[in-house]
Amino acid sequence: MTAKALMLQGTGSDVGKSVLTAALCRIAKRRGLSVAPFKPQNMSNNAAACPDGGEIGRAQALQALACGLEPHTDFNPVLLKPETDRRAQLVVQGKAVTAMDAAHYMAHRGELMDKVIESFSRLTASHDLVIVEGAGSPSEINLRDRDIANMGFARRAGVPVCLIGDIDRGGVIASLVGTQSVLDPEDQAMITGFLINKFRGDPALFEDGVRAIEQRTGWPCHGVIPWLPVSAELPAEDAVALSRPDRSTGGALKISAPMLSRMANFDDADPLKHEPGVDFRWISPGQHIPRDTDVIILFGTKSTLGDLAFLRQQGWDHDIIAHARSGGRVLGICGGYQMLGRRVVDPVGVDGIPGEAQGLGLLNVETLMQADKKVAPVSGDCAISTMTVLGYEIHTGRTTGEDTVRPMFNFDSEPDGARSADGKIEGTYLHGAFANDAFRSAWLTRAGGTADTHAIYSNTVERALDRLADGVEAKVNIDALLEGAQPPGWQPAYR
User: Fold this and answer.
1) In terms of domains, do 478 and 417 share one?
2) pTM of the model
3) Is 457 a member of any domain?
4) Are 261 and 82 in contact (CB under 8 A)?
């Protein structure tokens, strides 16, 4: 089997590439095709553990779900996980390789193309269709000579491109026409059409705009996609989503979560945000944690020491400690769990910057960062109720101390996490716990809230994917778009 492939690139970041890739994956699956997602290079601290023991961007895990597939490291062969503003951990085909600064990566990323093509080739050998997602924009021509994420990949692999423009941010005509104008003729020729995304209002009012883009570029428009609110019901790809914090839902149980600077896997919160009895609030930097908060959750981070310092800069340490002393509940997940202990030690900087720091001291535990990184799906039991839970671990470091005799979970006869003597301070390395419906319901009840006992979170996500696919299929010429997919090695007729 040799698949056809089609690549979605955008005029910029956050134009909807990931969501539209998921939509096309679900549409193709519903048409009976064996389809797989692919993103050559992703930058995100929101990661998913694969059954083969590697990790990929969370967006590619969602796209895999849209295809009816388990996550696989070939779906995202190069993943960058930022540790500081200028340094990131490099993950290649699921395995953490090294950490490097931005300049070093840019100078050497072309060397990763062989790994990208290797993963892509395995997918095209085993599926009917591969939907490829670009990163950022192909108009970043200053980076073109070593590009592996956009036109560099498209040209090397021979994959046609559909360009996406975001009309919601304005200037969509200029962004599409301008993208063509800065590309060299060979790159221009790889683009076979375009989509307009996030349209609000009467699309008839933009018909002249569509014609203007078509006339100036020579590309056909495959559709004008309206703003689809259902996309907000899907797990967020990366921290861009946090720049648009959710509005208060008005639920009785108030949960607050500080927005750490290198926060990771914050989609752990998504099942909670769907609960009608929960008022979930992201706390932006510069804001205090509200005093009426019932539960504070510290989510994971790619740099525990760095975000401990950031947390203290915001004054959140005082808020959290005061909340705990007054009888409030606190939950730490992964890096958040490490912060709740007495001390975090990272002698060689495996999780960002080397050093050590005092934690918040709410759990009698300490964490030593270690070079070996644990990445794996896990299953086991909740320590206080014996109910089964499924999730995954992605972390460096080992946490020990007196409070670990009261774990949150037991996996393969090995305990995970810790609880204070009164049970109000909890920590765990388990991601995805709240996606387990029975556990989420029991945890909310212990926290003094109520849960929708009929809610099945996995069904919520599946329905959202189907509604997303319905919305896209209604406004896009899917037949024309998929007919534009070509076998790898395709070469356009240069204009």
Assistant:
1) no
2) 0.91
3) no
4) no
315 and 178 co-located in one domain: no
Cβ-proximal residues to 279 (8 Å cutoff; 6+ apart), any chain: 248, 249, 250, 251, 252, 253, 254, 255
Distance of CA 339 to the CA centre of its chain: 22
> Same domain, yes or no, for 60 and 206?
yes
> Looking at the structure, do residues 220 and 277 belong to the same domain, yes or no?
no
The owner of tokens 């599946």 is 462
| DSSP code for 313 | H
**Which residue of the set 25, 50, 334, 382 is catalytic?**
334
CATH number at residue 83: 3.40.50.300
**DSSP structural state of residue 40:** S
Structure tokens at 5: 């492939």
Q: Burial, 195: exposed, middle or buried (Cβ in 10 Å; 0-12, 13-18, 19+)?
A: buried
Cβ 269 vs Cβ 295: under 8 Å:
no
Does 454 participate in catalysis according to the annotation? no
What's the pLDDT at 88?
85
Q: How far apart are the first and last CA of the chain?
A: 31
8 Å CB contact between 261 and 231 = no
* Number of domains within the chain: 2
Q: Residues 388-443: pLDDT tens digits?
A: 999 999 988 999 999 999 999 999 868 999 999 999 999 999 999 999 999 999 99
Q: Is 145 exposed, middle or buried (0-12, 13-18, 19+ CB in 10 A)?
A: exposed
Residues 6+ apart with CB under 8 A from 403: 363, 364, 365, 418, 419, 420, 421
Q: Are 119 and 38 in contact (CB under 8 A)?
A: yes
Q: Is 127 a catalytic residue?
A: no
Of 222, 323, 395, 431, the active-site residue reads: 431
Are the C-beta atoms of 5 and 488 separated by less than 8 Å?
A: yes
DSSP code of residue 319: H
For 141, other C-beta atoms within 10 Å of its C-beta total: 15
Instruction: Tell me, yes or no, whether 371 and 472 share the same domain.
Output: no
DSSP 141-153: GGGGGG-SSSHHH
